[in-house]
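tool=predict chain=A
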Amino acid sequence: MNHKNAAQEIARLMLPYLNTEQNRKLEKVLAHCLFDESQLAGSEGGSSDTLLALFLSAKRLEGCSDRTLTYYETTIQKMLETFDTPACDLGTEEIRSYLSEYQLRGGVSRVTVDNVRRIISSFYSWLEDEDHIIKSPVRRIKKVKAPQTVKETYSDEDIEILCDNCKTARDLALIDLLRSTGMRVGELVSLDRSSVDTVNRECVVHGKGNKDRIVYFDAKTKVHIENYLSTRMDNSEALFVSRRAPYERLEIGGIEALLRKLGRDLNLGRVHPHKFRRTLATKAIDKGMPIEQVQVLLGQKKIDTTLRYAMVDQRNVKASHRRYLT
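tool=predict ok
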């Protein structure tokens, strides 16, 4: 075993007994005694910007979308710019202090702060896995607890009002497809005409992690999609396009703006695409669909995520209590 490997092994074995600052001092002592300090773990991995670029490349390879990568980059870059210290030399207390000040300065919610913590943790876990650092300083920073709020879903009446007031066949088909499949808005905008099988009432969506899955829609949605496609006079392969030439594929922002305006006009409050997804999950679980099947339908890796989407109807909890426990 060479000196560098020996130093890393000693530092690793001492991890359970030392905090981050003590580990850092131990590394420096080992580096001073065994070899030139410039060879210290973390110092040869490159600048903070270089490491961030490598991290983003790794996440891109894992299948993260451009939107997610941008969020990762801006979040991590904002933290790194706060310190003069290189990324590999930041300690637990410095990062914890940054998160605390971030919450106070921005007046943001605890959920947002925990999202920032999670992204920074992902970065440092990658640095650890790639041997740029010995131990992630974010390990000892606990998840930021946030109050669990019951998020609203659309009622059947809300859905009917939205559909009855759509001004175009496109908007009606779009809303009905979100309603009956629970797909993500990013998946919706990437749909092509060829992705949709109206005969079998299903379509293939390109989900997170570059994974394809099949989602299903009802007869009502089938009719509305076919009606919409019959009005199309363009050659675009996209399923949903703008109403005017050059008939470009709709983007996420355009759909969000469309639904937001519709909600304002109809006094339905904040109408947004993700609420359709939550509504579908809630209704499916409420009607007895196994949670594992709901997870597959929504294309989610972890079942805990599926449970967070679902809000079980309290009236049915009461009915089940009477049925099973009294």
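Confidence is low (pLDDT under 50) at residues 36-45. The radius of gyration is 25 Å.
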